Amino acid sequence: MDEEEEEFIGGEENIQDKLQSFLGRIPENFSVLEEEIDIDTQMEYFKFAKDLSRKNEIDIIEKADLLYDDRVSINEKKEIIVLLAGIDEPKAFRIIEKYKEYQQGKELFDWTAMAYQESRMLIQGSLLEENQVFISTGMGGKGQKLRYFVVFISENGEGFSQSQVKLIKSEVEYSFANTNSEIEEFNILDKFVTLTALIPLESNIKQLFSSAIEECNQLGNFISDNFIVTNVKKLSAKEIEEFLNKTDASDQGDIDINIE
After folding, report:
1. CA distance 230 to 236
2. What is the pLDDT of residues 48-63, one digit of tens each?
3. Residue 180: other Cβ atoms inside 10 A
4. DSSP 8-state secondary structure symbol assigned to residue 200
């Protein structure tokens, strides 16, 4: 959240209490970054915006056309975008919105998406006369939901059978049914089953997946009680293996959550 990154890792500590404490500081009106943007890019944007003097911001509107000029450097364009995001005027927001569409699939899309979110939050805060909270994660979100990458681990170290994979998906969907959560992707990654899901901020994440694992294991005890959840990025099979190898099984706990 904001410019700081906090990492909470389960185990002896009560991860859900920490998460609920974090959520308790969020007012009714908050804004979630929807795009999946690398954390390093987000940190660069925040630092750039913090270090940049925003004096004479209004003048930058007159220079907006320079964003489309190939002779203008990337760094200069970044500066224009950040300055526009700091202007509490609908015109500045519309300029960023248009440029965001233009940048789809291009070098400055992530940067412009960050500015778009900042600008929208600034305008909304002005209209509502209330400070807005900006929640950003590497995997983004939608509405009042954050996007998470989840890894289920085989108990015996072998791959899951087709029937086991089908059961896992069915039980997760059932667990999600009353929480307004939704699965976006569901995959088999070597000996892991992974999914990408949108989950409301107020949901008890640990309970959601622990209950699904418990139900599955009644039919064979084939899933480890330990699982991985992150909202920083999707992990490859190699990255999952590296995480498990450097963490003793006894210390893994139930959950790994990253919140910005």
Report:
1. 13
2. 988 886 655 668 898 9
3. 14
4. E
Return the minimum-mean-pLDDT range out of 27-36, 113-122, 178-187.
Answer: 27-36
Q: What value does the mean pLDDT take over residues 135-150?
A: 87
| Per-residue CA distances from 143 to 54, 99, 244, 255 (Å) | 29, 22, 32, 24
Burial of 81 (0-12, 13-18, 19+ CB in 10 A): buried
How far apart CA 221 and CA 231 sit, in angstroms, is: 27
Q: Residues 73-86: pLDDT tens digits?
A: 999 999 999 999 98
What's residue 157's pLDDT?
82
**C-alpha span between 216 and 220 (Å, rounded):** 7
Question: Phi/psi of residue 145, each to 5°?
Answer: -120, 145
Which residue, 21, 88, 23, is CA-closest to 54?
88
Model pTM score: 0.71
Q: Give me the CATH code for the 141-259 domain, please.
A: 3.30.70.1290
d(CA 181, CA 186): 14
Question: Is there a contact between 205 and 16 (Cβ–Cβ < 8 Å)?
Answer: yes
Q: What is the dihedral of CA 38, 149, 230, 241, to 10 degrees?
A: -100
Domain ranges of the chain: 38-135, 141-259
Dihedral sign from CA coordinates of 189, 192, 193, 197: negative
Between CA 245 and CA 35 the distance in angstroms is: 31
- The mean pLDDT of the chain is 81
